[in-house]
Design a protein that fits this description.
The chain is of the alpha/beta class and about 325 residues long. The chain has two domains: about 220 residues, P-loop containing nucleotide triphosphate hydrolases (Rossmann fold, 3-Layer(aba) Sandwich), CATH 3.40.50; about 70 residues, Alpha-Beta Plaits. Helices cover about 40% and strands about 30% of the residues. The strands form three sheets. The chain has a six-stranded mixed sheet with strand order 6-7-8-3-9-10, with helices on both faces. Strands 2-1-4-5 form a four-stranded antiparallel sheet, with helices on one face. A four-stranded antiparallel sheet has the order 12-13-11-14, with helices on one face. Strand 1 and strand 2 form a beta hairpin. It binds adenosine-5'-triphosphate and magnesium ion. The site of adenosine-5'-triphosphate (ATP) has 12 residues, from strand 2 and helix 1.
Amino acid sequence: MIQVSGLAKTFSSKKGNVTAVAGVDFEVGAGEIVGFLGPNGAGKTTTMRMLTTLLKPSGGSAIIAGHDLLRASGDVRRKIGYVSQTGGAKPAAIIRNDIALQGRLHGMSKSEAQARTAAVLAEFEIEDLAERTSATLSGGQRRRVDMALGLIHRPPVLFLDEPTANLDPQSRALVWSHIRRLREEHGTTVFLSTHYLDEADHLCDRVLIIDQGRVVAEDSPERLKAAIAHDTIQIDVADAVDQAMDTLARADGVHSVTVDGYSLSLACDHADQTLSVLLRQLDLAQVRVESVRVLKPSLDDVFMAITQRDRTETAEHANA
Ligand SMILES: Nc1ncnc2c1ncn2[C@@H]1O[C@H](COP(=O)(O)OP(=O)(O)OP(=O)(O)O)[C@@H](O)[C@H]1O
Ligand SMILES: [Mg+2]
């Protein structure tokens, strides 16, 4: 549904050039929900602005919903919805009118636009705000209005730039369930950026990690976690720390052991399978175990690992 190849953007000014996006390639299938992660300034918004026809790429191309981004930008615009990082609601406009006008701009008749407006107001639970202006809303309320504006024409492809930034947990959950429902009921394809890694973990089929304008990793959240970060097992022993350390360091599937007092921390694969074997070996070595904890890697660990690694590699290149 989205095919991007070599897409790049360099901003030029008198002070010099900034390469915001250094040539990215990726695909998003029909009905997929794909997360776009990366640190501040990585190039997420710039990529989204190019894909939504708001910014002219310096290089590369993209096909969106069957239309060429550069040659048929009008067709692309009709197929997409975009909720920008800063939102699209006009501060002084009455919300109901603003959303209906958006519908009219998408070619709806007056009554159709009114009906759709009522529907999206209800979907985002903002009917009671409809006669107010966006300037008077809280950040989280405004974010829901932004979503309603982006969805008025029920686009098959949706670009969301940090849709849940600054939302309280309840509003985030509302936006998540809405995104899932769009996919289930309408097969909507969603490409969304986020800094909340748990969001990507819960919501996305796949994540792309972008750093310094390049895609540095791409996979399902589960596989990324498995590939990058190990499980951790923490074992507290009552005595015989050295004995325990020897036993565990020799065990299969254990990558490293660190000791802090009577507490041992093991990096290993498949902790759930390894654990019972380790406990049996400790028992044979006559080590008394007081407590055991298994920690699974979070997407944060993966994200930190990948973006740190990317920086180190870049620094090495610069030094070479
Ligand atoms: N109009 C512009 N002129 C010059 N540089 C720009 C412009 N827009 C963005 N940049 C630069 O391009 C880089 C990428 O910015 P972008 O907004 O795409 O990052 P982002 O990944 O969305 O970050 P954030 O998480 O903070 O929203 C940054 O270094 C930014 O300063
Ligand atoms: Mg951004």
